[in-house]
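// run 5 | inverse folding | seed 20
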């Protein structure tokens, strides 16, 4: 099989992958729209309630624990997690802003990018089992590398020797999603000194099954 045919085949595979990701991204947007609608209903239901007592007889609330707040706020987080899971495309992102010029030009040659990464992975037994499903630039300075499983993602992050094949390219950190918790007692999270309680993370996980 000629090199030109292999390149055409790789480009066709990347195009199919891009179309799949686009379709799944549309599904994610649809899920997010549903999530917004659900949140609006939740806000309205909270806003419409029994009249409060007069200021002279009103008793201040002791506050709810952070665990109860998170449990009641699980609607948004579960939808978001489901949308991300629905993509089914585990990936890592390469940052090429500080990379050498010859590395940055790989954005224009996806077949060569994939070949170089695969070769580097196969040269070490710790990453030989990682299957590169596809490579797609997300901008002129970032490239997304799709793999077969979350285990492969973890492997790529732990064994970074393969980055030597892409001089001065960097691996972006894992994406995280902040959450905001209202009406939570400060002492449930922080010590009197202002330091976070040592048992906070474990209690959070235990009470919310995460």
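// decoded
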């Amino acid at each position: 099989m000629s090199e030109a045919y292999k390149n055409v085949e790789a480009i066709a595979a990347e195009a199919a992958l891009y179309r799949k990701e686009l379709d799944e991204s549309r599904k994610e947007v649809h899920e997010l729209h549903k999530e917004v609608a659900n949140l609006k209903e939740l806000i309205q239901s909270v806003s419409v309630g029994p009249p409060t007592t007069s200021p002279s007889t009103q008793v201040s609330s002791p506050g709810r624990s952070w665990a109860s707040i998170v449990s009641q706020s699980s609607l948004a987080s579960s939808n978001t997690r489901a949308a991300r899971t629905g993509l089914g495309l585990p990936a890592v992102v390469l940052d090429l802003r500080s990379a050498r010029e010859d590395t940055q030009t790989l954005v224009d040659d996806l077949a060569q990018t994939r070949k170089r990464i695969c070769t580097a992975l196969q040269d070490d037994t710790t990453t030989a089992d990682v299957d590169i499903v596809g490579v797609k630039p997300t901008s002129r300075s970032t490239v997304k590398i799709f793999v077969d499983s979350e285990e492969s993602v973890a492997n790529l992050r732990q064994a970074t020797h393969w980055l030597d094949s892409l001089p001065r390219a960097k691996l972006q950190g894992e994406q995280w999603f902040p959450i905001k918790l209202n009406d939570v007692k400060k002492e449930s999270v922080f010590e009197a000194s202002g330091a976070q309680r040592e048992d906070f993370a474990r209690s959070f996980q235990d009470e919310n099954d995460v």
